Amino acid sequence: MKKKVLMSLRTSAVCASIAVTVNPLTAFASTNRPALQQKSIALNGKIVSKPSAVVHDGTTYMPIWYIMQALDNANIHSTWKSPVWNLSTSHTPNVSDLHVDNGSSSIYINGTFVQRINQIVNVDPSSGNQTTYMPIWYIMQILNCLGIKSQWNGTTWNISNDTQILLTDYEVSSPSAVSGQQIVSYAKQFIGTPYQMGGESSKGIDCSGLVQTVFAHFGISLPRTAADQAQIGQTIAKSNLQPGDLVFFNTDGQEISHVGIYVGNSQFISATSSQGVQIRDLNDPYYWGPLYVKSTNPGI
Predict the structure, then answer these.
(1) N or C: which end of the chain has fewer CB within 10 A?
(2) Same domain, yes or no: 40 and 161
(3) Where is the signal peptide, in residue numbers (predicted)?
């Protein structure tokens, strides 16, 4: 039996957490094209398109035309004239803390430059034409600057312009479907994987990406960010932690900025920016212990 979780989406214009890891602009030759995977774009839980996406170095890139159409439905209009993408919206962005990175494409909001990101150029199978693909994870961060929440579960990108949304895309499997030890055993296969912000594979992964990927392997869909994952399931006491539970930390001044999977014996596994996926002591008095915020059981 599945249960649906009602999630309150807190609009936030804080962009300090954006630290875009750029990849080089890639124009794939016809003999060296990456495999395309069908993904979905949804608005307020309703699928609006199913484009073919490029997954490159652990990051998902979607065709910009489909992204623009979805944003248009959310009242964010845009124009694309390579390499400039200009977003037009009534939302007031807060970019005071935004760190501008290097990249091949420039993003403007209401005519004001806000960020650079890299793009991929590849053939769109629907049209047969060369198409620009944008890294979806980094677009989510730009939207967050506008106070617009979106979630990515590895298959569906759901944009919300509502204050609340019933997360039908994030249904939690019944407790009998998978054990906590199964979750832990699978997570350990990622030990040594390098850290990559926005990464979703064994080539590179971030903390919430690891949690989402591990649980998705067992058919349990979770939101993409640590802050959103912290809203799923039942909050439990630290003393009652069981393998497979989630542990959350404040590592950069935000309420929730890091997540890991409890493995037992006061240890947890997570993707750290310094050493990649590692097992660490939850009660480490010099770092993790003081940064611990809460624990949850996500429904296993």
Answers:
(1) N
(2) yes
(3) 1-29
Cα(95)–Cα(98) distance, rounded to whole angstroms?
A: 5
Whether 175 is covered by a domain: the verdict is: no
Residue percentage of the chain with pLDDT more than 70: 81
Which residue bears the tokens 């003393």? 239
- List the beta bridge partners of residue 172: 3
CB atoms within 10 A of CB 164: 10
d(C-alpha 38, C-alpha 56), whole Å: 14
Tell which of 166, 189, 206 closes a domain.
166
pLDDT per residue over 45-61, tens digit each? Answer: 888 888 889 888 778 89
Residues 236 and 289 in one domain: yes
C-alpha distances in angstroms, 94 versus 21, 135, 164, 251? 21, 21, 22, 22
Q: How far apart are the first and last CA of the chain?
A: 12
Question: What does the block give as tokens for 136?
Answer: 């979806």
The pTM score is 0.55
Q: What are the pLDDT digits (tens) for 262-272?
A: 999 999 999 99
Q: What pairs with residue 78 in β-bridges?
A: 87
Query: Is 252 exposed, middle or buried (CB count within 10 Å of its CB: 0-12, 13-18, 19+)?
Result: exposed
Can you tell me the distance from the alpha carbon of 294 to that of 22, in angstroms, rounded to the nearest whole number? 32
Give the range among 33-37, 154-158, 171-175, 276-280 with minimum mean pLDDT.
171-175
Beta strands 105-109; 84-88: pairing state: parallel
CATH code, domain carrying 195:
3.90.1720.10
- Same domain for 36 and 136, yes or no, is yes
- Domain membership of residue 171 (yes or no) is no
In which region does residue 253 sit, left (phi positive, over 0), alpha (psi from -120 to 50) or beta (all else)? left
- Whole domain around residue 104: which residue ranges? 6-166
Number of domains in the chain: 2
